[in-house]
User: Which sequence fits this backbone?
């Protein structure tokens, strides 16, 4: 008895099933079984016809010595391959996708209201904010992708006003971009430039050269402790026992804050101020829609806009070099 | 025409045909063998219809009665059901492909090529397997979106949503492991990209490559791992998770609808 009472106290509150009257019900046979049967038949026919006319690809036998260019992941992992181009590999390939899955799994534990379940777009403005977020996320992702391919898309022109560094780099206190010797001056071509081509000096500290080799602060206290040993060495920019701060900024901090904090925050805050995002459900709708659209957009870019050397080009210009 | 005439004596062609039809029907469905499989005829009363759903092993995943709104196509677009159907088609075509395929780097490619040219319907089976696999990935994604936008993850369905997320991952991994099996250039280099991604895992990069891909390069160890995962481990796991998924739908009081 006591155990049972305890159990009842700790278990989730009893959830009375909503009553429904017989008139609201239909019989599974025939109403549902027939719908299922018909859709199964339709799909079988469709796919059989499809398979008669379109053959699955079979290229040459696998050969480790012949690398096709571009090599692409299966399309549903193209999004990860695409992320790798823009940020640290560990983040783009593993950590960010894990966070995405964790976020998905956490959704029902964040939005626990039972309000309006089982109807499409339950809250007042949910359809509207979904559409807005779809457009927003697509534009933002395409924008970021093109910014990171500044030479191909011309977005480097936006930052050409940043002066070129003088060849004899004596005084670089003012931010400047270092160009290849003899090359035309370019603006910021990709985020990586922030750690490679951008130079400036604050309080006598030069970016990037004074900051790319900061000793791991506990080096002395833990003795010969090698960060590579616990795997962090594989996080780009954490070279051995040293921090490479410019590279951490360019490949981890900037891309991650933009994609996880700044752009989602901006749209959620704006919609909140307008008054269209009002509940947790609404916030989740924006986050879920944004994440899914980012996933979809990245997949499309990877599948249709990446040519040889993973350069950003138009779909009809992609040529595969079989190696 | 007298009322006392014997019943059952066909008088014209139409009646003769009717009798014939009844006889054939009787022969087909009222014989010992048929009735040993299906104990009753077509369920044409509500009581029998509920009985057939409750007692048939394949249909009993369903409840006997459901709410009106849930049979509207626009509520689910059948997406979960179709994902499951794709899984079934993949299982059948996959088993047929296994008859002709040996997971060895020396044979795999030739086996697939031979399957396409020398085996009757081999090419069709391979195409079906390929296209339904792509479709399953798309459908499971769309299913997740429909569940999200109908707010069907809300209490008491939190756990079933999480089961769903696991199924999503399983679907992707199933598809990915299958991608290597034809052992052509497409397969090798796509999986090499995945190999690189796995290797970039912090802390576990090398371990991932060794455990999952069998080394630092894609070869026989990777092929046999992917094959084993693809044909037995992952489908089994997916089937178990699907059983849990469907069971939970019933346990959670059927599909979600406004309280
Ligand atoms: C192999 C993958 C999957 C299969 C075969 C599957 C199958 C199904 C089926 C047949 C239903 C009944 C309703 C419908 O057809 O929509 C259903 C409902 C449901 N699924 Fe899935 N599903 C899969 C993956 C997922 C995923 C990825 C999620 C979410 C992340 C999910 C969450 C749910 C939830 C919460 C319900 C209850 C919906 C409601 O009450 O309206 N499932 N699933």
Assistant:
């Amino acid at each position: 008895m006591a155990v049972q009472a305890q159990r009842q106290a700790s278990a989730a509150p009893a959830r009375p099933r909503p009553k429904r009257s017989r008139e609201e019900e239909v019989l599974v046979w025939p109403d549902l079984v027939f719908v299922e049967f018909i859709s199964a038949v339709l799909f079988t026919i469709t796919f059989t016809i499809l398979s008669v006319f379109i053959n699955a690809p079979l290229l040459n036998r696998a050969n480790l010595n012949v690398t096709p260019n571009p090599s692409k992941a299966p399309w549903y992992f193209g999004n990860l391959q695409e992320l790798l181009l823009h940020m640290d590999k560990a983040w783009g390939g593993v950590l960010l996708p894990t966070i995405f899955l964790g976020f998905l799994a956490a959704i029902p534990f964040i939005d626990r209201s039972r309000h309006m379940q089982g109807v499409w777009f339950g809250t007042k403005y949910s359809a509207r904010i979904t559409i807005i977020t779809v457009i927003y996320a697509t534009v933002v992702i395409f924008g970021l992708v093109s910014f990171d391919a500044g030479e191909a898309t011309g977005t480097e022109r936006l930052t050409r006003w940043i002066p070129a560094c003088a060849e004899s780099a004596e005084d670089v206190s003012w931010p400047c971009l270092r160009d290849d010797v003899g090359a035309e001056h370019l603006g910021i071509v990709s985020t990586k430039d922030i750690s490679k081509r951008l130079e400036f000096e604050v309080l006598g500290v030069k970016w990037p050269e004074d900051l790319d080799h900061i000793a791991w602060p506990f080096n002395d206290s833990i003795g010969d402790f090698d960060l590579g040993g616990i795997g962090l060495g594989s996080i780009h920019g954490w070279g051995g026992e040293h921090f490479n701060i410019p590279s951490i900024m360019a490949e981890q901090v900037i891309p991650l804050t933009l994609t996880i904090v700044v752009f989602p925050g901006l749209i959620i805050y704006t919609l909140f101020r307008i008054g269209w995002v009002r509940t947790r459900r609404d916030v989740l709708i924006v986050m879920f829609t944004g994440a899914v659209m980012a996933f979809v957009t990245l997949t499309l870019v990877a599948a249709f806009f990446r040519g040889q050397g993973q350069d950003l080009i138009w779909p009809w210009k992609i040529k595969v070099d079989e190696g | 025409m007298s009322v006392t005439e014997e019943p059952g004596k066909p008088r014209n062609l139409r009646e003769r045909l009717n009798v014939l039809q009844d006889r054939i029907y009787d022969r087909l469905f009222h014989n010992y063998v048929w009735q040993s499989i299906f104990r009753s005829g077509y369920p044409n009363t509500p009581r029998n219809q509920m009985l057939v759903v409750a007692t048939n092993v394949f249909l009993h995943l369903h409840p006997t009665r459901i709410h009106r709104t849930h049979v509207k196509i626009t509520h689910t677009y059948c997406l979960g059901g179709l994902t499951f159907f794709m899984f079934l088609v993949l299982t059948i075509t996959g088993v047929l492909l296994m008859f002709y395929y040996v997971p060895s780097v020396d044979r795999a490619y030739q086996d697939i090529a031979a399957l396409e040219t020398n085996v009757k319907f081999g090419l069709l089976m391979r195409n079906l397997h390929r296209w339904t696999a792509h479709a399953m990935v798309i459908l499971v994604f769309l299913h997740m979106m429909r569940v999200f936008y109908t707010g069907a993850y809300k209490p008491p369905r939190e756990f079933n949503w999480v089961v769903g997320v696991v199924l999503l991952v399983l679907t992707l991994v199933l598809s990915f492991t299958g991608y290597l099996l034809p052992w052509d250039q497409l397969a090798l280099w796509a999986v090499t990209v995945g190999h690189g991604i796995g290797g970039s895992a912090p802390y576990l990069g090398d371990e991932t490559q060794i455990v999952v891909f069998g080394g630092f390069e894609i070869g026989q160890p990777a092929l046999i791992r992917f094959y084993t995962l693809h044909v037995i481990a992952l489908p089994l796991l997916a089937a178990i998770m699907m059983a849990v998924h469907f069971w939970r739908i019933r346990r959670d009081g059927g599909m979600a609808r406004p309280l």
Q: What stands out?
A: The first helix of chain A runs from residue 2 to 10. Chain A has a mean pLDDT of 83. The beta strands of chain A are 25-27, 176-177, 198-202, 205-207, 214-215, 242-243. The longest strand of chain A covers residues 198-202.
